[in-house]
Design goal:
globular; alpha/beta; two-stranded parallel sheet
Length: 145
């Protein structure tokens, strides 16, 4: 009985975590609501979510990045204008990386409700661009809800 106790505790903890995690249906529903949002509402939700996390948020008017987040001396660029795209390729990530270099930002975040191609994922990994996409839907749901 004592040998089985650690496994019982681990199983209980994993079960408790799964109960707290959003269901696949909730994630899919939230992604559909996000896609249905007009840009003004979506961008306001993103901006508000990052402000709640303690960032100073500035809107950027450019094509390459939509927001600059500042916390302390670190800056992060966020691109999410193409969040409705079904599939994202490498080009928007190249643009975001160019904006990061031009603004000398420390990090980049790319937000998408659709899939991101494998080539784009590899580029993001090389350039340390954090992807918040369908596969990372829990994070996307938490960021805007």
């Amino acid at each position: 009985m004592f040998a089985a106790l650690p496994f019982v505790v681990i199983a209980a903890y994993v079960g408790w975590q799964q109960l707290r995690a959003p269901s696949a249906g909730r994630i899919a529903g939230t992604l559909e609501r996000l896609r249905a949002m007009p840009w003004d509402d979506f961008s306001a939700a993103i901006e508000q979510a990052y402000r709640r996390e303690g960032y100073t948020v500035s809107r950027l008017g450019g094509e390459q990045a939509d927001f600059e987040l500042v916390q302390g001396s670190r800056s992060t660029l966020v691109a999410c204008k193409r969040w409705k795209a079904t599939r994202t390729g490498i080009e928007p990530l190249r643009e975001l990386e160019a904006a990061r270099r031009a603004r000398e930002a420390h990090e980049c975040i790319y937000v998408a409700a659709g899939e991101i191609t494998e080539q784009a994922r590899e580029f993001a990994a090389q350039k340390r661009i954090h992807l918040v996409a369908r596969r990372g839907a829990r994070e996307a749901v938490a960021a805007v809800t």
